[in-house]
From TrEMBL:
Xref: CDD domains: SDR_c3
Name by which UniProt lists this protein: SDR family oxidoreductase
Top-rank taxon: Bacteria
Segments crossing the lipid bilayer: 335-352
Keywords (A to Z) from UniProt: Membrane, Oxidoreductase, Transmembrane, Transmembrane helix
Keyword Membrane annotated: yes
InterPro entries from the UniProt entry: KR_dom (IPR057326), NAD(P)-bd_dom_sf (IPR036291), Sc_DH/Rdtase_CS (IPR020904), SDR_fam (IPR002347)
Length: 356
């Protein structure tokens, strides 16, 4: 072995053993942000919020009329935005989103894989064709988006953020939405795996998984239903889409591994991991009656599974305990503050115990 070989090997070893430098992401106001599923629910609120903060927005969805309306709305307020009509279940469409962002703005800094669709029905009733279509959107769409984003971030040599929107049902299975839960489980596994690979190779990409609880969006109205009654979040705690949008844009600026939208999402994940059989029983008891409203279900052909649904609605027709925000998501933005509060409460509790 030559001296040059020894030096090269030593440098490589030092690089492997050195701690990964914390990524420094741009402020949202200085970013170009790609958002899929941008014409409804979380995606729509995120696009509007990002534009208000000064970001250049690349909105992608299947509904071209809604996309045009969104871009016109954003531009009238003095912000920059473009749209790409795309079906994220098709890799060529996803690549076209990336190409359009680069040709229009020269780059993109954050890619948000948000587009999703669901099927409500008993597992043995749902056709395998419908199951595959859900996976096309909810799993393969984020896979295609991840590949396009990482390729761009790697080639340009600068840091970027990849944000995948998962679900509380990606941490814990459920009845009635078995296909949706399975696709989100797959997305969670993909996100963790690609994060580790990129980190091992020290690729400058921040990978965040968003874990929304039940969010008040039209997602249930867009779903294909095998039920007699209309899918809906019902008789449960429901969070506003703004809570998820805030978490997404926080992750665009600050590298975060996971962000849970609502203590509901975190509690179900923890309960399922610690007490799986108890959680089975609870889900069996709660999820049958809390996933539909007391009105007839829409015909299957009117769902958004195979074609674009109606756009420009950020809220759904859900009924329950509608929260105005997620305090849990807000506190996890500042873990040091959260830890300090926890320590303070523990000290107070200990002091109280001593006086008794």
């Amino acid at each position: 072995m030559t001296t040059d070989d020894t030096v090269t090997n030593t440098e490589q070893l030092e690089k492997q053993q050195s701690p990964k430098k914390k990524l420094k992401l741009k402020k949202v106001k200085d970013q170009v942000i790609v958002i899929t599923g941008a014409t409804s629910g979380i995606g729509l609120v995120t696009a509007r919020m990002a534009a208000e903060k000064g970001a250049k927005v690349v909105a992608a969805a299947r509904n071209e009329d809604a996309l045009q309306e969104l871009v016109d709305e954003v531009k009238k307020k003095g912000h920059e935005a473009i749209y790409v009509k795309a079906d994220v279940g098709k890799e060529e469409d996803v690549n076209r989103i990336a190409e359009t962002a680069i040709s229009s703005f020269g780059r993109f800094d954050t890619w948000v894989n948000n587009a999703a669709v669901s099927v409500f029905g008993h597992a043995m009733d749902v056709t395998t064709e419908d199951m595959k279509r859900v996976f096309d959107t909810n799993f393969w769409g984020p896979v295609y988006g991840t590949r396009a984003a990482v390729k761009h971030f790697t080639s340009r040599g600068g840091p970027g953020a990849l944000i995948n929107v998962g679900s509380l049902f990606g941490d814990r299975g459920t009845v009635i939405q078995s296909t949706y839960a399975s696709a989100k489980f797959a997305l969670h596994g993909w996100t963790e795996s690609i994060r580790m690979e990129l980190e091992k190779e020290q690729v400058p990409v921040s990978v965040t998984l968003i874990h929304p609880g039940r969010i008040d969006t039209p997602y249930n109205e867009h779903a294909r239903s095998y039920l007699d009654k209309q899918p809906a979040h019902y008789r449960s705690m429901i969070y506003p889409p703004e809570a998820a949008a805030e978490a997404i844009l926080f992750a665009a600026e600050h590298p975060k591994r996971d962000m849970y939208i609502g203590s509901q999402a975190k509690a179900i994940a923890m309960l399922g991991a610690l007490f799986p059989r108890l959680t089975d029983r609870l889900m069996e008891k709660i999820m049958y009656y809390s996933q539909h409203a007391e009105r007839p279900s829409k015909p299957r052909e009117k769902s958004a599974l195979y074609h674009a649904g109606y756009g420009m609605h950020d809220r759904g027709t859900n009924k329950g305990w509608l929260r105005s925000r997620s305090y849990y998501a807000k506190t996890t933005k500042r873990p040091a503050v959260t830890a300090a509060v926890a320590v303070g409460l523990a000290c107070v509790w200990a002091a109280v115990k001593r006086t008794k």
